[in-house]
Amino acid sequence: MSDTERPESPFPRPLTGTEKRVLAAAAAGERETLEAFLDDQRAAVVRRASGLSEDDARRRLVPSKTTLAGMLRHLAIVERNWFQHRLLGRDRAELGLPADDLADDPTWDLADGDTLPELIADYERACAESRAAAAGLPLERTFVHPQVGELSLRWLLVHMVEETARHAGHADILREQTDGTAGF
Prior knowledge:
By secondary structure, this protein is mainly α. The chain has helices at 17-24, 30-49, 54-58, 68-87, 92-95, 116-134, 153-179; strands at 142-145, 149-152.
């Protein structure tokens, strides 16, 4: 093969920056790998919600409170709860988080004036705050969860990959139901 020839890419489309970061982390350390996968799932949620009308973003297509707009609100609250409140010990009220008793789970509720661009921006801000909260802390750093006990930053990052990936999958399905956009 000459220098100008390149093998055909196994990917059907150009990769996003976060997908490239995941591939680059294939032989990286544990922290870089965890952070790359988490950021890729965060970006996937934003991609699935982006470009929708306000009505479509709020449309309930399942019996639960799950909507694409509500998912952004929920995930922003989850980010702040775990990284700001649990890991750093900041006060829930100071962070604007709902009460710890989530029997009716208000984390999915939207205000009438919430807009999709504002929800995306708030989620992206929450993710940036989470990155900053974890930066420089060792993966072995622990904090205490009142119901579970001692947890590590390592556990928190794995948990957030799981939580965000689950909702990214929900977002894929909701987006396909909304306007037929499937896949990436």
